[in-house]
Please model this.
Amino acid sequence: MTMFSSVRHPVRTTIGTGLAAFAVAALPAGAATAAAPDTSTARPSADCAKGWGSLPEATKTLRPATVENVRTGRHACFDRLVIDLAGPATAYQVRYVNVVQQEGSGDPIPARGGATLRVDVEAPAYDDAGRPTYPLKSLREVSNVSGYDTFRQVAWGGSFEGRTTLALGVRARLPFQTHLLTGPGSTHRLVVDVAHRW
Model:
């Protein structure tokens, strides 16, 4: 894998330009891309959200990685968003915002729910040749979160200049935590857990 530097890749993948083609080209005929639910063990509800808050969380360590998958899971006291990375875990920023803006174009992305988390990971969803590494099925419904306690929508915010953005619509401005996980094997994940309640 080619190392990524702090100079970002020039390929745009925005709704207003080539993202629709990007999404279609990435899907083989008849392919299903429904995200598999996260099956890791839920934490005991007694200590759920202990020490969590609603302030921005971030790391700044930039490493070479690409986005391979986006999936969600339901747990006893929180809903979970997982971004699977090919390459080591890299820099990210997760924060509540009034509206998420589309990478590249700056267009607003409305998200269902009473609050919106902007999730940025410093990893593109394409390789050095501009080929997609994550096959999108839907720009507005990246993962089906119907019936979730906290999540209301996961929308694609684009992958532009080495950064991939998601708009995570949630029921209310609830406490969350983020962490980077390694394994099994050489896999890496950015995990965002949002509690069901304060």
About this structure: The longest strand covers residues 151-160. The chain has a mean pLDDT of 81. The first helix runs from residue 19 to 25. The chain is about 5% helix and 35% strand.
